[in-house]
## 1
Amino acid sequence: MRNITVLSGGVGGARFLEGLLHGIAAGTLPGIDPDAEVTVVANTADDLWAHGLKVCPDLDTVMYTLGGGIDLERGWGHADETWSVMEELRAYGVEPTWFNLGDRDVATHLVRTQMLDAGYPLSEVTHALCRRWLYPRYGAGVRLLPMTDDRVETHVAIADPDAPSGRRVVHFQEYWVRLRAAVPAELLVFVGLEDSTPAPGVVDAITGADLVILPPSNPVVSVGTILGVPGVRDAVSSTRARVVGISPIIGGHHVRGMAEQMLTSIGVEVSAAGVGLHYGARSSGGVLDGWLVDADDTEAVARLAEAGLPAIAVPLWMSDRDATAAMAAAAIGLVADGEPAP
């Protein structure tokens, strides 16, 4: 297999990609060509405008992580960061004060915003930014694409007894960063998603792949929004590539982020089996040919098999690159022996 496409969110997807690329370089992934090319289709529904700048958290997390510039302790943002700009903005009382932009990170957002203002689409802007971060390490071997060039934003409805409707709607980033996902998400609103179109190269990367991977990213507001771009889910369902996914839920809880809150908001069981069944087997109209669950969720394997979704239980903690590469190898091995989808 030479062409791999990964539908990625931010931190979880980026860490998985590190392990995947490590495994390719080490030659430890079954059936994967040592010169395999990886295309990453990243979620952009978390994007927002802050202080006049276009911020793309998931694109940047993948770009910084694979480019060696991520803050390892926080898992997001630029390494060796300083915060003088935010200190000055707070001194002026300029909102949002709850969303931190580091000084080095601001440079990325300035370049992106200037290029967007000049008329370049987000896909071309992302390519230009990756000339600095990805090309020196991987050449043409790794490509990062936004899921769409269109503006799509996730908003979350939460309870507000002072509002006439009893609810108010906040941007996803406010729910995550300011509110820390500490209040129930009553409803999710994906503004612009239904009217969006896949960014150039996205559908071809899926239909032309040998393998498509859904990493342990949020199944609702990361992978879910990518699949929600009209045409993308159909591409995944119809591709001749094998499609394998990895559970972001271990032992009934998410490892990082807010998958539990998001799954609850759409009525999906918070479990490894629940997420696998939410994606569904391609043999019954879903998107998966195989599903990895953690060793603590072995009981889910039989339940998934009954629904026509092959699954195995292996350690899913991405503790280091070798462990993550082993996880990727298990995912590939689960589906590698099968025939391509018709």
Note: The longest helix spans residues 11-26.
## 2
Amino acid sequence: MTILTVGIDLAKNVFAVHGVNQAGRPELLKPAVARDKLPELIAALPPCVIGMEACSGAHHWARQFEAHGHTVRLIAPKFVTPYRMSGKRGKNDAADAAAICEAVQRPHMRFVPMKSLEQQSRLMVHRARQGFVEQRTATLNRIRGCLSEFGIVLPLKAATVRRRACECLEDLPGYANTVIGDLLSEVSRLDERIAQYDRHIQTMARDDARAKRLMQLSGVGETTATCLLAMIGNGHDFDNGRQFAAWLGLAPGQYSSGGKTRLGRITKAGDAYLRSLLVLGARALLAAAKNKTDPISRWAVALAERRGYWKAVVAIAAKNARMAWAVLRKGEDFAMPA
């Protein structure tokens, strides 16, 4: 019988492949396939559905397999775990491939949007910039920690740390002067690098009509707009904006039973970087809303008064996520709500 579904457990050098026919019986069992042999093996198969976990290199392989006429589905690893029969066969690559093959056949399984080369290259700009920001924060905290050993306790504010560290630099004994001076130089170098990547993001936003439409939303700037485009493209992998907001972790978890609906805390699932950008934009929107009279600003202020600041911020971020999805999906036909 013809192989209809294939599950592949990705790795660096050795891959496991599990293929089943229409009846669900295994037709292709390859627990150890070398990296250079995998493209040849997949190219020889008739067009089928291929499932893989969304991990490092998954989008690269997905593009290659689609070029051979296959339909590729990427699954979050946490959705594969329930289909792994650990008690029966244990945890190994072959069992993982079989679990992926089983999970990809589920009619209501949720999949990860596959990224193009352009999307991945633009997302790398955001990942690199965020890495430099984290390095700068760590370096500033290292300065604070070192100075505290000499009785100089500085607040968290970055500008104050820079200024006070420079002021007391000449008073530090021995090698402490050298260390703090080098750390301040590293902070300046990271500032320049972050500014360079900010310019890259500005260029990406300026050259993309979709990013310009996204930036018409209150609380969505160049960084958020370009990150949205790099993450979800035109938003075709989501049926509606509510699904996109839930995918980002901006919706409450549900713990309902016995006909009683119970909503818990915000799930914080999905990409933390994009979610943080939307939350920061929501805070900026709420701060500026007090001096505005447009419908969204009035709604945000009323919500903050009724439910509190942080619940209002998360609600605004979720609303912006839903409107951003509508902007990407409808394009020029999108109209701001009155």
Note: Residues 100 and 106 are 10 Å apart (CA to CA).
## 3
Amino acid sequence: MFVYGLIGWTIKLSLSDEHDALGNQGFAGLKNFTQLFTDDINDRFVHSLKNLGIFTLVFMVGALVMGLFWALLLERGVRGEGVFRAVYLFPMAVSFVASGVVWRWLMNSADGANAGGLNRIFEDLHLGFLENPWWTDPDWGMAAMALPAIWQLSGYVMALFLSGFRGIPAELREAAAMDGASGWKLYRHVLFPQLTPTALSALIILGHMSMKMFDLIMSVSGAQWLTEVPAVYVWQTLLTSDFAKAAAISIILLLLVAIVIVPYLIYNNRVERRS
């Protein structure tokens, strides 16, 4: 009732002609969906989808690489492993709103004498060539917007990979060592293939989280055209009482998330049945 019922109501609304607060004026079919791609002002929806694609790609790759790197360091055994795990996982305890406010300051676009945040650090270290406008850059703004998300969730990915490493039987490592596999060969041909299900799970989780990202982006940049994604577009559309259009955007977002999650669920169910 509270999930599928509301989804059904949203689908009905997306097929209506309710573009103001006066109520439903009739059935519009797929008109709201086609207009998003063909008749939206300044191709706003297409622009938001491109931003989402850039954000998702940078976020997923960055979080996976950093998470795997930290897991490798801890998997090899270090003193104070529990402390490092806590440090890496701590950002997850911070809300996206709080971290967004901090990263808005860190990614201050001013440079030179007016620099702040990361640009100020680069200026003080005489690394001025590293200063950049961050999220205000029209070309790489969305890539910079993914940095706070990578910082916040790479620790979670680290925990997934670390549990995957710890779940590999010791006998497998010993057998590989007896066959002459050591160092990089051990990881490349024995351990990493065992982490494929873990990596797939991490990709699915990160992918669907990035598609619904709203609070972090709003906290860093606000409702800006430059960094607008579909979730922010929905919110702004609702403020104008264009309920049918907002519902259509929401359904497209739902379909994008389903495209990512449903195949994984089907694959996972088949694997469980075989085992």
Note: The CA atoms of residues 176 and 186 lie 7 Å apart.
## 4
Amino acid sequence: MITVVGESLVDLIEDPSGEAVAHPGGSPANVAVALARLGQPTTLLTQLGADAYGRLLRAHLAGSGVRLDPASVLDLPGTSVARTRVAADGQARYDFDIAWRSFPDRTLAGVGSGSHCLHTGSLATVLAPGADDVLALLRDRRASTMISYDPNCRPALMGDRTTAGHLVEELVSVSDVVKVSLEDLGWLHPGRGHEELGREWLARGAVLVVVTLGDGGAWAVTRRGAARVDARPIRVVDTVGAGDAFTAGLLAALGERDLLGAARRTALGGVGRDTLTSVLAEAAHVAARTCGRRGADPPTRAELAADLAVSRPDT
């Protein structure tokens, strides 16, 4: 099982006419939905409102097979919202109205227990006061489960770049799998190369660092070596949720190879180039499929299998 911790929100995505349509979103929630659609048993710890948007998100999560952790805060007066504007090239830009509260005392005691992996990232790891609870949870669970982290930086909400960078590095130091975008690294460390930073993050404690390169594909590194894959060709509708879909594809691919779990850290750190390449290719496939339709709408395992059957017909 994989436990995901973080925000759920509604994306109000503007179409070309400027009309906004509500879509379920929130980076950690997107990861949870994508994992469940890929056949991974998935639990989400989140915070939801008691309004119509909250009901929309509950139905979306349940419809994709995501289990809500009982410690989730489910009775907030309003649900967090992001307004998303999609440029002509499909790239998304965001404005947020979001709150991430502290969790009630002792409610986090069982979160992540029995999971092979605990994933978090994005706003849940930077917005006070809830971010402090998330960091404490990661520190407490690291001995018993594998930790996955995606900074998914939102500069408008992260304050001073230097302070944000220190926080990201603290989170990297308690994580095993770190997935980050080239855009994130460009904001956190302008002018520095992603390969240099990836290896630096290994030295801070990560076991596997993966950098998504947009239309340049993806690159990954462990202490044993590195691998890179090209982006999978797709007609881009928008990029909303693409990074989250990649993260889910990455974790699902690792899980299918028995590379998740605290007891599998050494095995993960020792994977060779061929395994890294195949894992990256599978994650890129999930992300590409998501870019091919509106909003954060990741594919199912059956859809990916159908794609592969078409690309490799029987001869």
Note: The mean pLDDT is 91.
